[in-house]
Each structure stands twice: as C-alpha cells, then as structure tokens.
C-alpha cells in the first residue's frame, strides 16, 4: 500500500439505531424506525433495532475495539429521540449522558469523536406532524443541534449534520422501503429541501456553540450510461442530477439543478443562502456505481436502472467497483473546483456472509480485497489533486441493516447476536496494520 499523509484521518462509522439497542432507557422517545420495524413485512427477518448490538450497554467494550484498531476517529450518530424524546422542548439530560460517557471514553482512548446528528431516526411525533415534508422540522432540527452542541460541543471534533439525505428522501419518502414508508415518488422534493434547510440552520447553531469542524455526509454513485441514444444520455443526466447534484449544488452555492421532481415553489426567499452556509468537510459515502439507460415507454421514471456486468458482487448483490470511487472523487473535483471543501470518505464498505470457522475465527478475504481496492482508489485521487483527508470504513460492527434486518454483515468485527459476542475478523487486523504502517 502506498503512503498516505501522516495526518490522514482513518476511521470507522456506525449509526445509533443500527447498533445501540436500549430503546426504552433514560426516557428515549420512539423514532420512525421503531414504528416502521414493527409493521408486518417491512423488515426481511421481522427483527427490530430494540437490541441491535446492545452497544448502549457495551460501549466500553466497543471503545476498546476502536483503540485496538488504532483508528484516529470514530463516526457514530446521536439518536435525536434520546436528546428530545418528542422532537421538541428542553434536552433530556439522561439521554445526553450516554453520549457524554462515550465521547469521554473515546478521547481517553485517543480516538477523535465524529458525531452525526441525524442518521434517519426521526422522533415519531415529528413524523406525525409531517416529518421532513413539514418545513417546521428544519427548525426543530436546528434546535436539537443547539441542545446537543451545548453539551458535547467542547469535545466532538467533527460534526456531521445529516447522513445521506438523498437516501432518506428516496427510500423513506419516495419508494417507502425505509421509514417512514411513504410512497410519493417525485413528490418527495420538499423532503430534500427541508433537510437541506435544516442542515444550514444546524450549521449556524453548531458554529454558535462549538469551534469544531462541520460537515454533511452525502451518498454518491457515479452514473454508468448503458446504451448510446439521446434518450439514454438524457436518462443518465437526470439520474446524475437526482443522486449526485440535488444535495450538493445548493450546498456549494449553485442552487438546485433541474432534477426530476424539483419544485421551486417549495423554496422561499433567502433559503438558498442558509443552505449554502460554508462547511469545512464534505462527507462522501460511496458503495457502488449505478447503470442507467432510457426507461421503457410508459414508465413513471425518467430513467431505468440496469445491473452492471463485469464486477464481482457483495452479499447485497452490489458491484465491487473501486474504480467508481476514483471516478466519483475526480468528478466532484472537476465539477465544483475551488468551491469543493476537503473530502472525507465517511462510509465505504461491503456485506458478506461472514461466519466463524471451527476455531472461532472469522476470515473475510473479500472484505480485505474490497477495502484494499477502495483505499488505493482514494490514494490515486489524492495523487491527481483531489483534496481527500480521511477514510472511514462502514462499519466497526456487524449491525442491524435497516430493511435487511440482521441478514447483512458489514463489520470489521463479527457480532453473534444471541450472545452479543464480538469477534474481530481478519479485515480488522488488516485495517489495523494498514493504519500502523
Ligand atoms: C447508510 C448505512 C447503511 C449502509 C449500508 C448507507 O447508505 O448510511 O446506515 O448501513 O449504507 O447499506
């Protein structure tokens, strides 16, 4: 592996609902995922995040795993319904106590705390009032950011406002395969704008309380156009605008692109200035590229997704394409030029069917190959002049993978859910050695 700058940030990521469990302690309120997971047929194995990895009780053991890995940073998320059980009103001190202990433990272990404020677990009462379709949710989010920064702002090193607002809009409100399970297709644009507005208002709230850096973590997928007709080109442009530009152009001061569903009547005077508040880091979550061609006649979508041939595949059936990460980083740099803040890859990882062997060891050579390829892609991009200053693996632990329940394992550490036993996989040792070198 070639050398990286000495101050390059190596980390791992998790999110609250996927690992914490303990959903009924310290006054936590219900989130949309508690509700959604209980609806029949929503989660493939019928599970919920009630226990997940029991991290709320086992955070000390998990912090020791981070220390053993030698990462310089740990990206976790804060559960809004622990801080504000109803999504409004004063902070629930007992809910914040947990993150206080976690952050102190990380600092003692020499690991920088990187905190995401929203990784999809909206307090249920806010959903009952319209969720992110309701403009008021943006103001509520800024209030929650303020309360959280008042308690942790002196120690969190990097704030991430939102995780993947594109995925939350598309799966949660467009297609209904994630909470809150709405199926509005392209009528979900208000969810995009209100999340971005909430982001901008939260940036201001965080700046007022904390001198730490502020970021957003967006999901990106470079588009591979399949076919070569004008209609294929138009389809690829439309998908690219939706997935890769809708949540980035306005952040970096360019206003909204002409993406499917874009509705200018939702955007009020002054909003775009709030959305474009300067950020210190752009978080990039990358898993795979997307094949796109023109839709069949009569399709409700202006594009059609097509599987990409010629790549190995993960247990999620996603193509393993490190060249896509290199391409994406170059594209962001070309597209935004000087307006692009330093990038940190805030999620990169893969699911495989990892299981202990007869000796109790967990070997995951496919994950090592996956990560090796993606880390090299980042190195190539840096060599070509793209400002990339960090790389976080998704995820530290096998965890509760949303609608896939416990059936997809993304961890560097295997979790045996019935016993909650943690077993570092061979990829854990590989990543530890890489960081040391
Ligand atoms: C999300 C994670 C999720 C991962 C794998 C990302 O879109 O931020 O929460 O577990 O992808 O699907």
Describe this structure in words.
By secondary structure, the protein is of the alpha/beta class. It has a single domain (9-436), classed as Glycosidases (TIM Barrel, Alpha-Beta Barrel). The chain has 14 helices and 13 strands. The strands form 3 sheets. Strands 1-2-3-4-5-7-10-11 form an 8-stranded parallel beta barrel, surrounded by 5 helices. A 3-stranded mixed beta sheet has the order 6-8-9, with helices on one face. A hairpin with a 4-residue loop joins strand 12 and strand 13 (421-424). Helix 8 (165-174) packs antiparallel against helix 9, helix 12 runs parallel beside helix 13 (365-383) and helix 13 packs parallel to helix 14 (426-436). The radius of gyration is 20 Å and the shape is globular. The relative contact order is 0.14. The protein binds beta-D-glucopyranose. Residues 15, 18, 163-164, 167, 219, 285, 347, 394, 401, 410 line the site of beta-D-glucopyranose.
Report the portion of residues in β strands: 15-25%
The number of strands is: 13
- Strands of the biggest beta sheet: in what spatial order? 1-2-3-4-5-7-10-11
In the CATH scheme, the class would be Alpha Beta
Question: What general form does the structure show?
Answer: globular
Q: State the low-pLDDT regions, or none.
A: none
Most strands sheet: 8 strands, parallel, barrel
Q: Count the helices. How many?
A: 14
Order of helices and strands: EHHHEHHEHHEHHEEHHEEEHEHEEEH
User: Termini, distance in Å?
Assistant: 9 Å
Total separate domains: 1
**Cα-atom radius of gyration:** 20 Å
- Class of secondary structure makeup: alpha/beta
The residue-averaged pLDDT reads 98
Share in helix: 25-40%
What hetero molecules are in the model?
beta-D-glucopyranose
